[in-house]
Amino acid sequence: MGPLDVAVVGTGTVGSATALFLARQGHRVTLYEKVAEPQTLGAGIMLQPSGMAVLRVLGLEQDVVPRGDRIDRLWVQTASGRKVMELEYAQLEPSLFGVGLHRGVLFDVLYRAACREPGVTVRTGLDVEDLHPARGGRQSVIERGTRKRHGLHDLVVVANGARSSLRDDTSFVKSVEPYPWGALWAIVPDFDNRFTGRLFQVVRGTRRLIGLLPTGHGPLERSRPSAAGPSSWSEAEGAPRRSDHGDGGPRQVSFFFSLRADQLDAFHAGDFEGWKAGVLEDVPEAAPVLGQLTSHDSLLFSSYHDVVMWPWNTERVVYLGDAAHAMSPQLGQGCNLALLDAWYLAEAMRGAESVPDALFRYSRNRRWHLSWYQFITRWLTPFFQSDLTWLQPLRDYGMAWSTKVPWVRKQMVSAMCGVSRGPFMPLLRLPK
């Protein structure tokens, strides 16, 4: 199979990573983005060992990881201080760790790399609404509003998120459901370096979850790739170190508070100082963060979708990332699964005899891993975000007990790292 003309719709994590992989295989890639000037926005995210492995293959790990904060463990406790769960990456492999990261950092590095990559043409301000079959089995993309057709593409990669309208172009079974729960969030400076080393979560019943995630520096403001050196990169451990210096301002912490989507208006109409006092009662550690929140407008709200479809391709179109398998952020796997999607597609394309052969190979290779994460996310989320209050004692006592069992703890840590494929399956082999 020779060089192809490829359309990638969306410049998020999976879109830009896919454009890089395919352009480096010699394909001609057009990257479509509906926003005229893509911005480096977003809350704190967790970069797991699986996602870092893909960035390493792309040669971008050292542009991303030093901007974040090393996370060695997940800690969950009740509002009364009872430990629910403690998971350490080193329990699976001593060299493993996670990274708390500003979402904009990951976007910035991947997008800028795609813009620089020979073989990638970036077209911003073009909102792709639909696909149109063209001659020879190729596909054109149709612009929203004008209905103008663009390109004759041998392959279309749909990577424009959970709300993508391009899933309507397929006839196979799919389900797209909004989650009833979302999260209020804010990223504020951590001037005193109080938050380090762990993702800290506090739960009260199943209706209240509050989290604090060290998030490192913000996105670079200069339009050039980061050039991380020994001052911000540990050569011995390959891990970020805390520092008050560097581009992107001071180190930051990401605060999040779970909330039902239908209660958002009530939150905005309520007593903000009273709400802060309630949070402080449950999480005294959050005082430095709450002190920087002055009104309801200090917090943004994120909602989530559950997307299920199979397979993730037709003969000329493939769906990646949240457009294919959006899920609750409870396991912190969104950007990591997206990066793995990009790598798996590139591997399926390598040496394939035809586009359909490559795409169906991709769906087969991703099925077990993605299905497993969708299953455990649906199973786990109600224990932390739901109206099923009877689950609280099962969580508070059952999870605390289960993490003491070595085999169970290993399964939990491998799921956290992004490499689980099920309790009796070998771990996912990471890209090298």
Structure description:
Helices cover 30% and strands 26% of the residues. The strands form four sheets. Strands 3, 4, 5, 6, 13, 14, 15, 16 and 17 form a nine-stranded mixed beta sheet that branches. It has a five-stranded parallel beta sheet with strand order 7-2-1-11-19, covered by helices on one side. Strands 8-9-10 form a three-stranded antiparallel beta sheet, with no helix packed on it. The chain is globular. The chain is of the alpha/beta class. The chain contains twelve helices and 19 strands. The protein has one domain (5-417): 3-Layer(bba) Sandwich (FAD/NAD(P)-binding domain). It has helices spanning 13-24, 49-58, 61-64, 103-116, 264-269, 272-282, 287-290, 322-325, 334-349, 355-380, 391-402, 406-417; strands spanning 5-9, 28-33, 44-47, 69-78, 83-88, 98-102, 120-124, 128-133, 139-143, 149-153, 155-158, 174-178, 181-189, 197-204, 208-216, 252-260, 300-302, 305-309, 317-319. Helix 1 (13-24) runs parallel beside helix 4.
Jot down its keywords:
single chain; 12 helices; globular
